[in-house]
Amino acid sequence: MTLTRLVLAWLPVAAWFVIATYGTAVLIAQVSRPTDQPGDMTSFLLVLLKWRIVEAALLTLFASLWFDSLGSRGWWLLFLLVGALVTIPTWLQPGPAVRPRRVALSGAAADLARYVLAGAILAWRLG
Predict the structure, then answer these.
(1) In the predicted model, what is the mean pLDDT of residues 76-104?
(2) CA–CA dist 40, 114 (Å, integer)
(3) Which one of 27, 38, 91, 125 counts the least CB within 10 Å of its CB?
(4) Which is nearest to 117 in space by CA: 29, 31, 20?
(5) Which long-range contacts (CB under 8 A, 24 or more apart) does 7-14 make?
(6) Banded pLDDT at 13 (limits 50, 70, 90)
(7) For residues 82 and 123, is the Cβ–Cβ distance under 8 A?
């Protein structure tokens, strides 16, 4: 596995994660109608976008291990499980205010879809 191949696989996944993060933030903001200041949301979103780029790099490295050692069969199940592992702890976090069920479900569905589509991109680039 060359570094160029990894970077070329990471770039579309990083772009997808940034787009999906922004889209999820807009979706959840419309569903929950937060009362936060716009500046608070912007700074939070910038920190989240930086993490998504790192998360995409880690997921790309994980996918390269999968595709280079075990093959490309069952990639969708692997990324569905990884997405579930990432999503479940967000449901279990206690917070000062309980989120509405529809906000939690839409966020979880968006996270799962984000990981499965990232898996499809990585299967295309690395598989």
Answers:
(1) 77
(2) 24
(3) 38
(4) 20
(5) 8/125, 9/60, 9/63, 9/64, 9/121, 9/122, 9/125, 9/126, 10/56, 10/57, 10/60, 12/121, 12/125, 13/56, 13/59, 13/60, 13/118, 13/121, 13/122, 14/52, 14/53, 14/56, 14/57
(6) very high
(7) no
- The interaxial angle of helices 75-92 and 101-126, nearest 10 deg, is 150
Please, what is the Cα angle at 49 between 47 and 50, to 5 degrees? Answer: 65
Q: Cβ contacts of residue 14 below 8 Å, gap of 6+?
A: 52, 53, 56, 57
Residue 96's Cβ-count burial label (10 Å; 0-12, 13-18, 19+) is exposed
Identify which of 32, 22, 21 has the alpha carbon closest to the alpha carbon of residue 103.
Answer: 32
Residue 127 near residue 75, CB atoms below 8 Å:
yes
Q: Across all residues in the chain, what is the average pLDDT?
A: 81
The whole-model pTM stands at: 0.75
> Distance between CA 39 and CA 104 in Å, rounded?
23
Using alpha carbons only, what angle is made at residue 9 by residues 110 and 68, rounded to the nearest 5 degrees?
Answer: 105
Is 20:110 a contact under the CB 8 Å cutoff? yes
